[in-house]
Amino acid sequence: MKCLKKYKKLFPTAAILSATIFGAGMFSLPYVFSKAGLVVGFFYLAAFTALLATTHYLYSEVVRITPENHRFLGYAQIYLGRRGWLTAIFTTAIGILLTLTIFIILSSSFIGLIFPSFPPLYASLLFWVVASVPLLLRVGRIALMESAVVTTIVAIAIIIFIIGVSNPVQPIGSTVLFNWGFLLLPYGAVIFSLAGRAAISSLVQYAVEKDVDKKTVSKAVVVGTMIPAVVYGLFVIGAISLSKIVSQDAVSGLIQLPQFLLVLIGLLGTFSIWASYISISREIEGIFAYDFKASRDMSLAAVAFIPPILFILGLRDFIVLVGIIGGIFLALEHTMVTLMWQKMTSRRPLWSYLVIALLVCGALYEVVKLI
């Protein structure tokens, strides 16, 4: 009975983190894994699950121990000073705007599964209009949206995995295992897919309200990071098995599936990125309003129009953008988390420097790759 009560506290707490981690990044993984090799890809998935579970835990300690409630920008200012605060503003703001652009790019693939003859450009712009309406009309938060997003993405992964294993187009064993020419390709995509720092404040707040002890919170952070990793692994296996040629977005290569399944996956995927687009838009709106001190109308205009402008100007390479956001912006963000924890605790263990070195080196690689 005591064990059951513990699990009742553990899994709802972990689900808060998993709900934030699940997102568009998973659709980049089949492509980068097939290019780099399955062994390389799954090594990255395992290694960065451990690394990000660690940084998620460090951030939960920062949130738990620091007096009063803050968000990432506030903690950056407290522990890293004005430079840290400014860095946090621009990495967070730019990273989120690029993430919204990714949703616009990905939307045409899902809508294309439902309406194959619909032009991709118009599909993306239609998605942007529909996703922006709740923000512009100032509609309140949609109830149960996070749970619906998690259920949707898990459903997509399981459907594709089951069909892929039972009726593969190509055996998963025929996929390349190592490809040294693409050894570093999964770096940014895997970080982007597993990052959930934004959920930690809500997780800690929930734990306080439900009287969840510190040990259970620590376990919840690890479990909440591991659940998406497992689902991603199933999705990668299924998507590669069902694709003659693995597409960059994973889903547009699944043309051999029955039409009703393609429509179902298209509907599920469109809904999931629509819900995520609305949630993330509200976060970036707050940054413009409260940290840039912009007016509400200017904040709304920036959130509503910058992503489609970037898209129209040619920012449409899904894999490149995922690598930039994960490999540069999120890598720097998690580096800052580790530095905050060091400053707060006055501890400098060797492993914390290894975490920082790995993230910084990866970010430098992504920058050099762009040049």
Counting helices, strands and paired strands, the structural category is mainly alpha
Largest sheet: none
In CATH, what is the class? Mainly Alpha
Our count of helices gives: 13
Q: Any idea what the CATH architecture is?
A: Up-down Bundle
| Ends apart, CA distance between termini | 58 Å
As a percent range, the share of helical residues equals over 70%
- SS elements, strand count: 0
Q: Averaged pLDDT, please?
A: 87
Q: What would you call the shape?
A: globular
Give your account of this protein's structure.
The protein has 371 residues and is mainly α. The chain has one domain (12-370): Amino acid/polyamine transporter I (Up-down Bundle). It has helices spanning 2-21, 29-36, 38-65, 72-114, 120-136, 145-166, 186-194, 200-209, 214-241, 259-291, 296-312, 318-345, 350-370. The model has no long low-confidence stretch (mean pLDDT 87).
Structure summarized in a few sentences:
With 371 residues, the protein is mostly helical. 77% of the residues lie in helices and 0% in strands.
Secondary structure: elements and pairs:
Elements (H helix, E strand, L loop, with lengths): L1 H20 L7 H8 L1 H28 L6 H43 L5 H17 L8 H22 L19 H9 L5 H10 L4 H28 L17 H33 L4 H17 L5 H28 L4 H21 L1
Helix pairs in contact: 1-6, 1-8, 1-9, 2-3, 2-7, 2-9, 3-7, 3-8, 3-9, 3-12, 4-5, 4-10, 4-11, 4-12, 5-10, 6-9, 6-10, 7-12, 10-11, 12-13
